[in-house]
Amino acid sequence: MDLRCGTGELTAYLAGLVRPQGKVVGVDPDKERLQLSRLSHGNVKNLSFVEGNASTISEIFPAATFDIIFSNYVLHWIPDKPNAFRNMFTCVKPGGKIALVYLSHLPLFVSNAFATLNPEKEKLLCQKFQCESKSQIEQYCLTHGFQISKSHDAPVALECENTTKYLEWLSSTTHGAFDPSLVTEERLNKYSFAHREKDGKFRINAEEDHSCRLIAFKKSL
C-alpha cells in the first residue's frame, strides 16, 4: 500500500518494482487526485487506487492484507497519529513492514517561504502541519506493536525545473492553501533560501533541514 498516494507517480514506480507477481494499492482521500491517478496510470495492471486515509484503511481492507505499507511525507499531516499506527498494524501482515518518510518539524525553507512569499496566509499554512518529534513518533510505533529496525534523519533536497514549478510544488504540498498568485518578484528576491541557477533550475539550500525515515516490522506469529 502507498498511503496517501496523491497523483500516483511514486505509486506507479512502486508497482514497477514488484511486477509481475506483486500488487500495489494507492490510497488517498482526494477524489480528484484519485481520478487523475487512474487516468495517468490505468494501464499498469498490478496497480489500483482506492479512496481512503489512515483513519479508514482498517475498515476498507481485511486485517493482515499488506506486506508493506509505504507513506511518503504524509505522517506530519495526520492529527491522530496513534490511530494511524494502530490501523497500519492491523492492515500489515505478520512479518510485514511499514516504511515512512515524514517531517518532525517544519523545514526552515518552507516556513520562510510562507512568511516571505505568502505572508497573508502564513498562519493558516503553518497550522496545516501536525509535526511531532522523532522520539514521539517512535513511541507511537512501539506502543502499537511494531518493532523498529531503522529510524534516522536524512537531509532535505529539492530541485524544481523553474520558479513556477517550485511555487506549484508549494501549492500542491499544502493542498492548494499556498497561493502562487500572491508571489511578487520583490518577495521572490527576498526569499534567501532560493537559488536560481544559470541552467534555469530552482534549487533550495536546506542543508540544516532534515526529514525522518522510519522502517518498522510486525513480528511474525
Task: Find the CATH topology.
Answer: Rossmann fold
For the secondary structure, the number of strands is 10
Which CATH architecture would you pick? 3-Layer(aba) Sandwich
Strand order of the largest sheet: 4-5-10-6
Please tell me about this protein's structure.
- The chain is of the alpha/beta class and 221 residues long.
- It is 36% helix and 26% strand.
- The chain is built from nine helices and ten strands.
- The strands form three sheets. It has a four-stranded mixed beta sheet with strand order 4-5-10-6.
- A hairpin with a 5-residue loop joins strand 8 and strand 9.
- The longest helix has 11 residues.
- The chain is globular and about 60 Å long.
- It starts with a strand and ends with a strand.
- The mean pLDDT is 93.
Give the gist of this structure:
The protein contains nine helices and ten strands. With 221 residues, the chain is α/β, with parallel strands linked by helices.
Key attributes of the depicted protein:
four-stranded mixed sheet, single chain, 26% strand, Rossmann fold, three-stranded parallel sheet, 221 residues, alpha/beta
Tell me the layout of helices and strands.
Layout: E1 2-3, H1 9-18, E2 24-28, H2 31-41, E3 47-51, H3 57-60, E4 66-72, H4 81-91, E5 92-102, H5 108-117, H6 122-127, H7 134-143, E6 146-155, E7 159-160, H8 163-173, H9 185-190, E8 194-196, E9 202-204, E10 210-218
Parallel strand pairs: 1-2, 2-3, 4-5
Antiparallel strand pairs: 5-10, 6-10, 7-9, 8-9
